[in-house]
Amino acid sequence: MNLNEQLIQKRKDSQLGGGQARIDKQHKQSKLTARERITLLLDEGSFQEMGMFVEHRSTSFGLDKNKIPGDGVVTGFGTIHGRLVYVFSQDFTVLGGSLSETHAEKICKIMDLAMKNGAPLIGLNDSGGARIQEGVVSLAGYADIFYRNTRASGVIPQISVIMGPCAGGAVYSPALTDFVFMVEDTSYMFVTGPNVVKTVTHEEVSSEDLGGAKSHAEKSGVTHFTSSNDVSCLKEVRDFVTYLPQNFGELAPTTSFTYNESKKEKIDQILPENSSLPYDIREVIDCVIDDHTFREVQQEHARNIVVGFARLEGRTIGVVANQPNALAGVLDIDSSRKGARFVRFCDSFNIPLLVFEDVPGFLPGTDQEWRGIISHGAKLLYAFSEATVPRVTVITRKAYGGAFDVMNSKNIGADLNYAWPTAEIAVMGAKGAAEIIFRKEIAEAADAEAKWKEKEAEYAEMFANPYKAAERGFVDDVILPSETRAKLIAAFNSLENKSEHLPNKKHGNIPL
Ligand code: HXC
Asked: How far is the centre of ligand 1, averaged over its atoms, from the C-alpha of 95 (Å)?
């Protein structure tokens, strides 16, 4: 074999990972290999691998006789739709994708390059966790990654894709990144697995129930997106990054777009006549944005708030909307946290914010109070107040109480606020308000019920409209639903060069 042939052979050896039998096992479990995943994720032929010949340095427990070039993770860079990204993809066929000192070094190397070159980092996770034979050096390797995840936060977008096991402290790298994708049935994330859970709490739970994609999508909100298999997941990631800028110093790319004009008429039909009835705010969003451009984030979690990316005339915007279809759109702990994190991502990466508001207030009750709705609700308030990106609000219906302030009101720095004629902007709903402020009159009336109705109507007449707020400039204009898209395009165009800076400080102290 000449030197060139030797190199080609060495490459082949590395590319085979843990061997054909383990690759077959991976395929039998409906999982792709680390390299197949990278091929699907990146533009054809764009992947430039780094560290293919890296081997671990461990000699304990016979590891010196078990060296596989690449050491269980494929790393490098490539493009998605022509834009640079850095990628690591853990290879479960090599010692279960476990993280050794050198495996961690490879990941850190591309994280450093991603930071220096201002390009997103995408991690494809499929690993049995810390390489047990290596002990503390493996744990230190994780810490090196966590540290970089944190330092990179707000500098470059970081995406974690969970395509197999992700357990123990290993979960904290994905948790520190901006978005987590999970594949149903083949991936799971938990701090302690079912066996430990059983020993400690006597609960019996499967891996899937404890930390599968469904549980994290609905219950914990740890994952932002779920897919039914590796192929559809990687396709979604490719689409998703088109909404993001490369780094905090850039804008997201502008794309071509279509807009079906019939949506302008359709928007008038969405709100029910009776203002107590629910509707789906996503229909409103869809009528306003470019066709088929809404990418909802954390769709299954805290459904009473809808967050996601969309495009307006080809430009990315972040949408935050109360959802009257779930818990009447009320703000609670989970929806406040969900909204706040999304707002902060958009603000970090120059993505303008559009808010649709229809909120009856904060959710009352001991459960919410004792679990800290005060601090959690403050997160959303803080996130909006802190955001310096262009911010526009459209009040479609209710804007009650403290929630009015929180949902991107003018007084917390929103740039332009609009209200539909159906808007009701008040301290609370007319019925409750009448009961409190006219309690005595109602009690003393011969027909208490009739009196209550009369006072309710009086309060509604005063506040169940947008004009009191418009009189005081809390909304800048009252607009027809059918005018919304045009108004928003003009609004965001006018804010294109917005320049606003926070007071000089080290960093703020969001109520965590
Ligand atoms: C070394 C490991 C490994 C690990 C798996 N392997 N996990 N080697 N360190 N952590 C090896 C196995 O020995 C096996 O080698 C191969 O990978 C495939 O593993 P299997 O068990 O055959 O696969 P499967 O049946 O699919 O089970 C997958 C698994 C299981 C559930 C992930 O392997 C497992 O429980 N692994 C240990 C998980 C764990 O406790 N990790 C430490 C977590 S604590 P062969 O040669 O047979 O193919 C942690 C701390 C991080 O990670 C702290 C950060 C702060």
From this structure: 7
272 backbone dihedrals φ, ψ, rounded to 5°:
-70, 155
Tokens of 440: 């005595």
Please work out whether the CB of residue 142 comes within 6 Å of at least one atom of ligand 1.
yes
CA of 24 to the centre of ligand 1 (A): 18
* Contact (CB, 8 A) for 400 and 426: yes
- Cβ contact 177:184 at 8 Å: no
pLDDT reading at 460 higher than 90: no
Q: Mean of the pLDDT values across residues 405-428?
A: 96
CB atoms within 10 A of CB 300: 17
Q: Determine whether the shortest distance from the Cβ of 98 to ligand 1 is under 6 A.
A: yes
pLDDT digits (tens, 9 = 90+) for 379-413: 999 999 999 999 999 999 999 999 999 999 999 99
First to last CA, the chain: 61
Q: In sequence order, which ranges of 86-131 are alpha helices (DSSP H)?
A: 101-117
User: Tokens 């520190």 identify what position?
Assistant: 176
Question: In this structure, which residue's CA is closest to atom 20 in ligand 1?
Answer: 96
Which residue, 405, 453, 449, is CA-closest to 425?
Answer: 405
Instruction: Tell me, in angstroms, the distance from the centre of ligand 1 to residue 150's CA.
Output: 26
If pLDDT is split at 50, 70 and 90, which confidence band does 168 have?
confident
Given a cut of 90, whether residue 187 has pLDDT beyond it is yes
Is 104 close to ligand 1, i.e. is its CB under 6 Å away? no
Q: Just list the catalytic residues.
A: 168-169, 402-403
Give the whole-angstrom CA distance, residue 220 versus residue 505: 33
Cβ-in-10-Å burial (0-12, 13-18, 19+) of 20 comes to exposed
The closest residue, in CA terms, to atom 29 on ligand 1 is 128
Distance, CA of 254 to CA of 293 (rounded, Å):
12
Cβ of 94 less than 6 Å from ligand 1: no
Distances (CA, A) of 499 to 129, 388, 389, 390, 494: 44, 8, 8, 9, 12
CA distances in angstroms from 96 to 10, 77, 128, 161, listed in the order given? 21, 23, 5, 17
Name the burial class of residue 277, with classes exposed (0-12), middle (13-18) and buried (19+) by CB atoms within 10 angstroms of its CB: exposed
Ligand 1 centroid, distance to 127 Cα (angstroms): 7
Tell me which amino acid residue 468 is.
Answer: K
Domains and CATH numbers, the chain: 3-241 (3.90.226.10), 263-428+464-494 (3.90.226.10), 430-463 (no CATH)
Beta 424-426 vs 391-400: how paired, if at all?
parallel
- CA-proximal residue: ligand 1, atom 47 (nearest): 95
Q: Measuring CA to CA, which residue among 508, 485, 307 is closest to residue 408?
A: 307
Ligand 1: does its nearest atom lie under 6 Å from the Cβ of 170?
Answer: yes
Residue for token digits 């078990």? 66
The token duo for 364 is: 């009352």
